[in-house]
């Protein structure tokens, strides 16, 4: 997959931008705050319908305007597709493919990318919610229908939590909540599918992460990934933090869907009293985690800064490798946002080699010399929301 042209209107600090892109490496260079990251953020939005920097779409729309437009001309096997998204302040977002209206949720199936940014260090050092989001975005990229399953699960979870809060406030006893059993059935059915799919994904990622970590770090620190399931825990807490989840059971053995459903139902019974006391659902995929280890120890808390960076990079490179294997639309576009400034010279060289054979790689950097020459063949300079020399060598 290739991005041939990117057009922005009222996106972030760009009133208008037109950028031609080439196969292979494309480097955006500019001082901090000039808008280079905004370009790759726009492309990342097309593949995830979200930003890697902010949780709200409102921040993506240029101040004083009511809408932002992202338009990208994509190419795969000689066939071009024009994809457009309009992000609105006061109404639902809209999308088009080849000038025909489509549902916004359909856009990611036309464009696949893997983006790595400094914020991704939180994959190793941050809360479980960051790792869940990483897994779920990769799941949807590989199997788009799972977006609907996740959406349905979130809806059921909200309904169940509302019922639990109502029961807590009114003093209803557990055995009087027949309605709760209906939501339990839906929670187990949808949640078990998500748990099984995530666990299978973790298993698929393992060999790719091992290879990618060795490629980036230049050393074998025995990286491991293990699922940590809340349905196997004897108790839980209100807080979704790493410390609160330490008691969850981690496993690198494949889980069986029937066993998941059985364990899920048993966990709901076991935790019913606590759930009624707290008014919240205390087990399920919304409280699971994945454990990362190096040399037999948890990467979080034990890995050095360089090892943590290498692990986070390995996760993203492994994601790209997995999408490359599974996709029918070619390689995902690999995006490296302000990454090289954080790496030593050896890791810069190894990272450049690790992504060199992808169809297209987009890099942002504040300092040109931070980026290995192999990735700087096509360079675009950015200044104050302006493309200084767009694709002059195209």
TrEMBL record:
The keyword DNA repair applies. It is found in: Cytoplasm. ATP binds at residues 30-37. HAMAP family: RecF. NCBIfam families: recf. Belongs to the RecF family. The RecF protein is involved in DNA metabolism; it is required for DNA replication and normal SOS inducibility. RecF binds preferentially to single-stranded, linear DNA. It also seems to bind ATP. This is DNA replication and repair protein RecF.
